Known about the structure:
This protein is 37% helix and 15% strand. By secondary structure, the protein is an alpha/beta fold. It folds into two domains: 5-219 and 405-423, 3-Layer(aba) Sandwich (Rossmann fold); 230-404, Glycogen Phosphorylase B (Rossmann fold). The strands form two sheets. The chain has a seven-stranded parallel β-sheet with strand order 3-2-1-4-5-6-7. A six-stranded parallel β-sheet has the order 10-9-8-11-12-13, with helices on both faces.
Amino acid sequence: MKDLKVVHLNTYDGNGGAGRACLRLSDALKASGIDSKVLVYYKFGQNPKIDTFSKTPFQKAKAVYNILAERYFSKWLSKSVKTPFSLQWYGRSVINHPDVKNADIIHLHWVNHGFLNPKFLAQLDELEKPVVWTFHDSNAFTGGCHVRYGCEHFHQQCGNCPILKLSGKNDISHKIWLRKQKAYTELNFHIVAPSNWMAQSVKFSSLLGTRKTTVIPNTIETQIFKPYVKSEAKKILKIDPNKFVLMSGFMPSKNDKHKGTPYLVEALEILSRRVGIKKEDIELVIFGNKDNAELPSFPFKTTFLGTINKDGHLAKCYSAADAFITPSLEDNLPNTVMESLSCATPVIAFTTGGIPDMVKHMQNGYLAEYKNATDLANGIEWLYHRPNKEEIQKAARFSILSDFSEEVIAAEHIHLYETLIDLQPK
């Protein structure tokens, strides 16, 4: 079905994991001959492949107001925890946009921050088109939170929310749940879960447990995120080629609950005290933003690369590492894990979320016991002493090419789109 028109809707243009995943999918579909467009609520960058609903000064101002109001009120009503929460009070209609009206498939991605609230989601039903929604986090089936941790209130009708300052049976989370229930009753959509963990979460939810869900992972640009010779990549970063390099994406705060920074710090402390570990042979390399005021002290020489905006250079950074460590406590299908494996760098992570869909224990990385810093250290030590590191590196790259490449993921989406169109009333 080569004349298939797909429009992808996301709040931002590549700002965050969902935006990256959305654009990567659209590019993969285009490479397979599909007419695929990305439309965002607010556009920060200059990418000509991405269009926006907010073009005029007035539309931009309105979008900024909605985004900031949504974020401010959510923060004001939440306890001082690091768990994001969306009220979804603000939003805008999209059904009159020509690209949305002309599409055969409307594919939703991350639509929070004042974009598609329950009211405007339900409005999509008027277009009588198949709607696909990829869940990049848990918000679609909770009463407001994006990351659930151990909370199981979404199995019922939310309420008594542990995030809200004013928590009770009929609190804001329960009211949001009811608004979503009403909207979902009006709108039929097919769920795409990028990981088996996300699909299981949907199944347990009271809002969407009976909906059809297909597991299709995100994809990655395998010709950009590709392996470079490790010794050469280390030289580019001005690192001794003989060093054993550990890489991590930095989390803004050592107290950040979601990203698990304290476990990383503890694991490295444990590792540094072990017999057979030469501290001078190991270097820690960290990319991403850093807040010097809240910087943890690491037991190994540490290099901060700052924010890396060019994917080609980021691929060389991954290639320079002997292992990528992510201590994340809940993640759907983190881009960093996929990017690292695609660059033939093994990943050491906790057994959580969608990470086991990518990391195969002691084959292309190491899956540590959840919240066990000692086991995280075991994973690093296992790789450090490993005689055949090249085999693990090859397995890392192969796992991405076979299961997450652009061609494979585009084909799975196209099959889903065609199936949904065939099911439409004639």
